[in-house]
Amino acid sequence: MTTVHEVITYDGARTSGVLRTVPDATTACVLMHPRQDFTHHVLVPELLSRGYAVWTQSTRGGLNDMSLLHEQALLDMAAGHCFLRDVGFANVVSVGHSGGGALAAYYIEQAELEPADRFPATPGGKPVPLADSEMPIPDGLMLMAPHPGQGLLLERMIDPSVINEDDPMSVDPDLDPYDPHNGFRPAPDWSEYSSDFVHAYRAAQHARVARIDERARAAIDHARAARRRSIESGDARDRRASLASGIITMYRSDADLRCVDRSLDPNDRPYGSLFGSRPDLTNYGVVGFGRQTTPEAWLSTWSSISSRAGLVRCAAGVTVPTLLVEVTGDQACFPADAANMAEAFAGDVTHTRVRGKHFGAALSADEPTAATSAGSAMGLWLAGQFPSSS
């Protein structure tokens, strides 16, 4: 049976979710992502076929992540967890795929804290009532191909050769990842970057994020100063300025060296990135992470420096049993990432590997999909955790 529900968060936002149930299911699996619609996620049929209900929920921003604040997304997730407890499921298990992994870990970390110890505001300073919201703790966490978190992933993919944030074609040739002089080879040949170039490149990636952080904080400070003036003066011009924090446009974020150089953190991945087989081209297009955001959203979600939604950081506060399914052909969660994640969780962790690609496809046509293999691993793990529900 499939039913659609609207849930209202503690701070009054409205989000929607789809509940799919099968006969006698007493365990519900929660699939949620901060910026994607998981209604038709590849794991939905896998979990249903193994006897588990599935709840897929959107955040208040839906597919528009320009103003995405992870701390508000936690309130959205809390409303979904409250709904599932209220309708009577004995067990609720959070399921994180890709960026949903860091969101789920962040939620559980905050839910396991005493309310007074939860973050009172976003990294940009916007108050968020996590301390006042009911945040039910799930009974377990399952992860498939979880990347390190939106901000940490973006730092790996951001192109540090941009020398003018207002010019999408500006390039520092010494840092250009797609210049043959730096080791790039066009597809289908794999590139070969020197260790010196990799070191300089990654330092420059971090430095570019730091510069955008400075820009975001300056915009927020300017708007807040105008807000204070408007309270004192009542001047409509100050009130307008307080609302005009602007939009950050960030060019070129499909430039992770590992997507074209398989010798860096090797696994079974094919040539190319999450966005396509020619990152040297898509890097210059409109598709990519964090391309347009509010200053608040940049700091909360896309900054590797300021965002708190890093999976490894959050995992230290997650004590519920966890299943980590590493996908061997992943282009966002690499072997070293998965090992660090498994080590970081405070509770019991089962770490397993399945062949496939990041979004759940098979590596070749003659083998099972990653989604099917992950679903099998999840079914076995759930049966062991909740034997009465299987």
Describe the 3D structure.
This protein has two domains: 2-149 and 307-389, Alpha/Beta hydrolase fold, catalytic domain (Rossmann fold), CATH 3.40.50; 153-301, no CATH class. By secondary structure, it is of the alpha/beta class. The protein is globular. It has an eight-stranded mixed beta sheet with strand order 1-2-4-3-5-6-9-10, with helices on both faces. Strand 1 (2-8) and strand 2 form a beta hairpin. Helix 2 (70-86) packs across helix 3 and helix 5 crosses helix 8 (295-302). The protein has helices at 43-48, 70-86, 99-112, 150-157, 195-233, 236-243, 279-282, 295-302, 311-315, 335-344, 370-385; strands at 2-8, 14-20, 27-32, 53-57, 91-98, 140-146, 248-249, 292-293, 322-329, 349-357.
In short:
The protein is α/β, with parallel strands linked by helices. 35% of the residues lie in helices and 16% in strands.
Which descriptors apply to this entry?
390 residues, 35% helix, two-stranded antiparallel ribbon, 8-stranded mixed beta sheet
pLDDT average, as an integer? 96
CATH topology of the largest domain: Rossmann fold
> What is the beta-strand fraction?
15-25%
Radius of gyration, CA atoms, in whole angstroms: 21 Å
| Architecture (CATH level 2) name of the largest domain | 3-Layer(aba) Sandwich
Number of strands: 10
Looking at CATH, the homologous superfamily of the largest domain is Alpha/Beta hydrolase fold, catalytic domain
Helix content: 25-40%
